[in-house]
Amino acid sequence: MNELWIATLGASAICYLLKILGYSLPESTLNNPRIQRVNTFIPIVLLGALVAVQTLTIDSEVVVDHRLIGVLVAAIALKMRVSFPIMMISAALSSALVYNFV
Amino acid sequence: MGQNSCVSFERRTVLRDSLSVAIPVGSYGAAFGAAAVAGGFSVLQACALSLLLFSGASQFAVVGVMAGGGTPLSAIATGALLGIRNGLYGMRMAPILKLSGIRRFLGAQITIDESTGVALSQESRGEDAMRYGFFATGIGVFIFWNLFTFIGALGANSIGDPSSWGLDAAVPAAFLGLVWPRLVNNKTRIAALLSVLLALSLTPFLGAGLPIIATVLIALVIGWKS
After folding, report:
1. I need a surface site. Which of A37, A94, B64, B91 has the fewest CB within 10 A?
2. ipTM of the complex, rounded to two decimals
3. What is the CA radius of gyration of chain B?
4. CA B79 to chain centre
5. Which H or E run includes B165?
6. Mutation test of the interface with chain A: which of B21, B45, B76, choosing the one with the most A Cβ atoms within 10 A?
């Protein structure tokens, strides 16, 4: 089995376990406000890091290229509260323009 | 009769709320399918992630970490950390849905941001409306998300260089779109900014995927202290 299948099936299994665990534990288990707060920050830091790494790195190097233009356009689109598909298309289009023609 | 039409009217309202979330979110599955294939996953693997994992942020993370050269272990760990919140949603929804047997196993799979969000937004309409909103949204997103994943994956499979179509920028744009609505105050914005700086500064020193996981430290420190 190749690495992509291990990642696909392993992540699927663990994420399903987490979902079903929620239905198996009483609601009070994680009522601790600290745990709740940490949990609201976890998606924020992981997604923030993923934006940075996917925009500005290649392998183990920090690189500035056409992707940054696409992500900046996405940020402007989000600020303007456009719909998700429009945001994605503007990001892809602007990045592709720079990649192909600059 | 009067009672009946009242109930069906309410159902229509809840269904409209559910579909207005399910259709745009589901169509976003095309971006996932395309990103997965651009990141080296096969069409079958992209579809397997949408069917079996079925949680957008975790799916994008698995694809992102693997595409960046990370190990399956860092991909699984990042996906799992992003999947913790679905477990918390389950705890919140369990007393309302009161599912047992096979329904509980199926209900768990569609316990995601959108189904929980729509269900909780129906609180003023009563528990029946919450249950209906949960299932209508969860099943709706499931159908559209999987359909569009397949379309996106096929589409990306038939184009050449992903960069010349902007797909390499669409992936971080997708993450930005996922984090954006969570940046509701200064503390969340600072957390996001710190995670960007930490991930970038660790990139030259740690294997791919690890700088992302390391940012959980920021969540621990800020969440613990505040």
Report:
1. A37
2. 0.90
3. 19
4. 10
5. none
6. B76
Q: Does B175 touch chain A (CB under 8 A)?
A: yes
Q: Output DSSP code: residue A62.
A: E
Mean pLDDT by 10 residues, chain A (102 residues): 94 97 82 83 91 91 96 97 89 96 90
- Three-state DSSP state, B122: coil
Side chain identity, residue B187? K
CA dist., res. B195 & res. B24, Å (int)? 28
Partner residue facing B195 (CB), from A18, A49, A59: A49
**Per-residue model confidence (pLDDT) at position B132:** 95
CB burial of residue B128 (10 Å; 0-12, 13-18, 19+)? middle
Closest CA to B219 of A49, A10, A65: A49
Residues linked to residue A61 through DSSP beta bridges, in sequence order: A58
Cα dist. B134→A84, A89, B41, B138 in Å? 22, 29, 31, 6
Q: Which residue stretches of chain B are H helix?
A: 2-27, 29-38, 43-48, 56-67, 72-97, 102-109, 113-121, 127-157, 167-179, 186-202, 210-214, 216-225
